[in-house]
Every structure is written in C-alpha cells, then in structure tokens.
Amino acid sequence: MSTIRILKCVCCQLLFMVSISLPYPVMAEEMLYKEEAKYLGWHTGKKKFTTCSGNIIEVGTGRIEETNEKCEKTKPPLPVNTIIKGRVENINYDNRTFQIKDEKGEFRLLFFPLADEEKGKVKLKDIQIGNEVSVTTPIKGRAEAIEKK
Prior knowledge:
Among the domains are: 30-66, no CATH class; 82-148, CATH 2.40.50.140. The protein starts with a helix and ends with a strand. The strands form two sheets. The protein has a five-stranded antiparallel β-sheet with strand order 4-3-2-1-5, with no helix packed on it. Strands 8-7-6-9-10 form a five-stranded antiparallel β-sheet. It is built from two helices and ten strands. Helix content is 17%, strand content 38%.
C-alpha cells in the first residue's frame, strides 16, 4: 500500500473515532414553539431565543425543543465550538447565567441551559465564585458544558 493511501485510511479512522467520542453533539438548531408560530434558531438566554435570521425573541410561554431542521444559510452566533478557560466571577442561578474572566482578562457572560446541564457531569449548582473552569461554548453567550479544574 502506498504511504498516501495509508495516511488517508488513518485520517478517516481518526475522524470517525473523534466523531463518535464527542461527549456532546455539535451545536444544532432548536425550535421555539410559541402560540401558533414556530421559530428555528438557538436558545441563547433563559428567556431569549435567537432565530436563524438573527432576530432575538422572548421565549415567554413558548417551549424549546431539539430539532433536525437546519437554518438555510445562517450559522450560529460566533464563536462556534470554542473552549474558554477562566475563573468564575459571578453566578445568577435564577437566570442560569455565570460570568468568567478568561485567560486574556476578558469577562464572558454565559447562559447554561438546563437541557445542556442534564447532558453533562457538572451542574450549575456545583459551580462557585472563584472556581477555575473550562467551558465549551457552541455559540456566543451559551455554555454547553462546564468542567471544573
């Protein structure tokens, strides 16, 4: 077998192993059902939902569910699939938000949806001010997973 064919085979195997070993799915769109309307986008705050077109809607009495539908052209609010490391500076358990000071000294306010918390090991109640954490952020302003250091 040629070296190039071997490398291609190894690369394909590595990609497959990484894709099946991810603890969380790559950020997918969600559907907001509100009265008789439905909106495709992302849950970006306890009471906020960002549509594919970038409009921010109050969730109110609506419900948010996972969906297989995809936005036609719009990508999630950037940055996508970033890991932020830093120290917890503030926590609001009622709003499910917390603020960290990252390694660059910048403050980041993040929303941690209950649905994402239920998938992970670390719960919001386990985080305290002063904890060093590593946060997976699939879209700007949203925490998908938290790891305490």
